[in-house]
Amino acid sequence: MEVVDTETAKEFMKETLAAVEVEELTLICAEIEAKSAWFRETLAVDAIPKLEPEQFDQVLGRIFSIRGKGRKLLAELDIVVASPHASLKQSPEDATARLIAAVSHPHVHILGHPTGRMIGRRPGLEPDMQALVAAAAAHGTALEINANPRRLDLRDRHVRLALEAGATIAINTDAHAAEHFDFLRYGVLTGRRGRVTAADCINAWPQAKLLAWLGR
Predict the structure, then answer these.
(1) Alpha-carbon dihedral of residues 191, 129, 100, 136, nearest 10 degrees?
(2) pTM of the predicted model as reported, rounded to 2 decimal places
(3) Looking at residue 137, what is its pLDDT?
(4) Residue among 77, 212, 84 nearest 154 (CA)
(5) Helix/strand/coil for 65
(6) How far, in whole angstroms, is CA 90 from its chain's centroid?
(7) Which of 46, 73, 162, 163 is the most exposed place for a label (fewest CB within 10 A)?
């Protein structure tokens, strides 16, 4: 499973897939946030382009910023990733409440880069991770290891906390270009340091199990 923007997905399919040795690839077609105005409740699901090649099993989804208002669009998508992109200097208490609200939302499947950190640029949020991973486990929401080397968020120690709480992990390259798919190795290494097994990580699940989880 991989989350990429639509144009990257098309480029990836044409130029990169032949070099990637995988038995099965579920490609999640998502438009990555550029401007907050892009995500309005009036945005129609049919405005999200689908990819053409029949050899791909497609799951329709988007990555949303965590804001605090529900959207009718969420219920019509196969998968929703909620990620903090703004207000990254909130107090630990406010950050914890905000992220727990996201993982508790019935239409959110994955919490993306939970702290929003950028290594060497900003520390990101400092939520109560123990409370957050417990909430994610309770609601069946996966926590992302963002494999971009500028993020690596979740950190390895937070991955271990998540697993100890019974939460599920997703690994995502945050790809904005086809070559960014190579970032996957950094996410896998972070997962290994956090003691992730194939059973813990939705990327490694068989298609039937993944689709059953998406329809929870």
Answers:
(1) 40
(2) 0.75
(3) 98
(4) 84
(5) strand
(6) 21
(7) 46
Average pLDDT over residues 131-157: 96
Q: How many CB atoms lie within 10 A of CB 87?
A: 14
Quick one: what percent of the chain has pLDDT higher than 70? 64
Beta bridge partners of 54: none
The CATH number of 2-214 is 3.20.20.140
- Print burial letters for 36-53: b (CB count within 10 Å at least 16), e (below 16): eeebeeeeeeeebeeeee
Q: Rounded to an integer, what distance in angstroms lies between the CA atom of residue 122 and that of residue 157?
A: 19
C-beta separation of 30 from 5 below 8 A: yes
d(CA 18, CA 169): 27
Residue with the bigger pLDDT between 57 and 179: it is 179
Mean pLDDT in residue range 87-106:
94
